[in-house]
Amino acid sequence: MTRNVFCRKYQQELEGLDSPPYPGPRGQEIYETVSKRAWEEWQAQQTMLINEKQLSLVDPSTRKYLQGEMEKFLAGEDYDQAEGYVPPDAGDA
């Protein structure tokens, strides 16, 4: 059975995550306020940032940077993107 959440990125009821993505209160907050769609899109965006910017997850400053970008992405704010990346036009879909 799926469960819905009011997604803070899309500002509408959407299918929620199956389980919290992180342990603790931060993971629970994401679980309760972020849709599966938004989380999957963030995962793709995060992978692109790591690959294109050649980031090392061993570096604490990289993890802090990605955490900040995740917050901006999930809040629907402007977020960092890979150099030269042009998002697909929603009208083309």
Summarize the topology.
Blueprint: E1 4-7, E2 12-15, H1 24-33, H2 36-52, H3 60-74
Antiparallel strand pairs: 1-2
Percentage of residues assigned to helices? 40-55%
- Name the shape in a single word: globular
Given as residue ranges, the uncertain stretches (5+ residues, pLDDT < 50) are: none
Strands, count: 2
What is the subunit arrangement here? Answer: single chain
Number of helices: 3
SS content category: mainly alpha
Radius of gyration over C-alpha positions, nearest whole angstrom: 14 Å
What is the average of the pLDDT values?
90
For the biggest sheet, the summary is: 2 strands, antiparallel
What do you see in this structure?
The protein is mainly alpha-helical and 93 residues long. Helix content is 45%, strand content 9%. The chain has 3 helices and 2 strands. Strands 1-2 form a two-stranded antiparallel ribbon. A hairpin with a 4-residue loop joins β1 and β2. α2 runs antiparallel to α3. The model has no long low-confidence stretch (mean pLDDT 90).
Short description:
This protein has helices at residues 24-33, 36-52, 60-74, and strands at residues 4-7, 12-15.
